[in-house]
Amino acid sequence: MSRAIVQVRDLHKSFTRGTEAIHVLRDLTLDVGQAEFLALMGPSGSGKTTLLNLIAGLDQPTDGSITVGENVISEMSESELARWRTRHVGFVFQFYYLLPVLTAYENVELPLLLLNLTKEQRRKQVETALDLVGLTNRMDHRPGQLSGGQQQRVGIARAMVTDPTLIVADEPTGDLDTKSADEILNLMEILRAQLGKTIIMVTHDPKAAGRAQRVLHLEKGQLVHDTAVVMSH
């Protein structure tokens, strides 16, 4: 594996429910390489999405450390994390989370509004991202005028538009038919192979996981085994 872009060390995450501590992740150590496509699998409640959220800086560990690139994100404050996420993390969700009143162009532009860019700089980055996902001819369409697969491609363009260090995807094909799901996974492979993006994907679908280079299985908050996938495409 190439140089680790994500380093997770002795990670613990627990929540308190009443007087009871619920341990979601226990003593978890993990490296993710630069330009690696990693899939996280496991039963519901195994801690997959919690791990993804911690690596993406959406939550903080109870104990242990998380380093992404040069940044020890487990030591950051809420406001530092918010700034870090804007620059370094692209999010792809199962249900797209596009704003229905905005066009594809405007949805993709949203993360750039948090950065100090001119309108012209934003336009260039949005058009590049939409071109990458093959949707330049749909940029003026609202989500309701697009198919599920097209909406997810807008979601990927939005994740890519800031040129992030890391793309995190939570069940990105969970709401799509087989053909659209395949197109989305092809696109993610292009992002990894041609643009050198590091992708971490949570999925329940063994076929989607089979498109990753490595599959990690979680059970009860611990890594149970690690599978290298032989590429068949």
TrEMBL record:
Gene3D superfamilies reported for this sequence: P-loop containing nucleotide triphosphate hydrolases (3.40.50.300)
Molecular function GO terms recorded: ATP binding; ATP hydrolysis activity; transmembrane transporter activity
GO cellular component, one term: membrane protein complex
Pfam families per the UniProt record, alphabetical: ABC_tran
Sorted UniProt keywords: ATP-binding, Nucleotide-binding, Transport
SMART domains found in the cross-reference section: AAA (SM00382)
Domain of life: Bacteria
InterPro entries: AAA+_ATPase (IPR003593), ABC_transporter-like_ATP-bd (IPR003439), ABC_transporter-like_CS (IPR017871), ABC_transpr_LolD-like (IPR015854), MacB-like_ATP-bd (IPR017911), P-loop_NTPase (IPR027417)
Residue ranges annotated for the ABC transporter domain, each copy included: 6-232
Family classification: Belongs to the ABC transporter superfamily. Macrolide exporter (TC 3.A.1.122) family.
Identification of the protein by name: ABC transporter domain-containing protein
Organism: Gemmata massiliana
